[in-house]
Amino acid sequence: MSSQDPNDGFRDEPEGEGEIPNNDRREEALRRVKVPGTLLQLFGAVCIAWNVMTGALSLISPQSIINPYFDFIEDLQRNNPPDKQQKLPPRDEAIKSQQVQGPIGAVIFIIVGVVAFIGGSKMKSLSGYGWAMAGSIVTIFPGLCCCCFPLLPGIWSLVVLLNQDVKRSF
Predict the structure, then answer these.
(1) What's the CA gap between 3 and 107, in Å, rounded?
(2) Which candidate, 106, 132, 134, places its Cα nearest to that of 30?
């Protein structure tokens, strides 16, 4: 016989004063994970949709991505003296590079979006702690988005997932 409780600290009835019953603890954990889990799902869905679009665009029409970028850089440098201007690679090389690098990057970020979406789903249902942690962590990596949007759901969900009551509810 093991001295460890088979219920792992969960009981249907409170043992003493201050103890929260198992069902109430689970309901509280579900309440805590609802919003950050939904934000993880939202980030995952947006990441998937955006990268499917940019990956397809990189294959079909890479010049539609490269030409506006080159035009923007050239407009910025128009007032600089020639010796201070940034040397850009030839447009044709950049377009060929975009045809290769664009879809590869898109596939990587689609995988990140899938992990974030699954992590948010598992977090909201309290069914997969590892997936929830993975989804939270991948949203924090720099470079996943051009802004700080993924930091909010990533850090928030990590804080919630590291809470002992939430951990026990998984």
Answers:
(1) 49
(2) 132
Q: CA geometry: angle at 111 spanning 49 and 160, to 5°?
A: 95
Query: Is residue 70 within 8 Å of residue 88, measured between CB atoms?
Result: yes
Q: Which among 166, 150, 160 has a CA at the least distance from the CA of 39?
A: 150
Closest among 54, 37, 44 to 111, alpha carbons compared: 44
Q: Estimate the share of the chain in helix, then strand, then coil, as percent rounded to the nearest 5.
A: 70, 0, 30
6-58: per-residue pLDDT in tens?
Answer: 455 444 444 444 555 577 888 888 898 899 999 999 999 999 999 999 999 99
Give residue 33's region: left, alpha or beta (phi > 0; psi -120 to 50).
alpha
Question: Tokens standing for 63?
Answer: 């010049």
**Per-residue pLDDT at 21:** 58
Q: Which two tokens stand for residue 101?
A: 């690098």
The letter for the amino acid at 37 is G
Tokens of residue 105, six digits: 């990057």
pTM above 0.90, yes or no: no
Q: What CA dihedral angle connects 162, 164, 168 and 170, to 10 degrees?
A: -20
**Biggest CA-to-CA distance, the chain:** 83
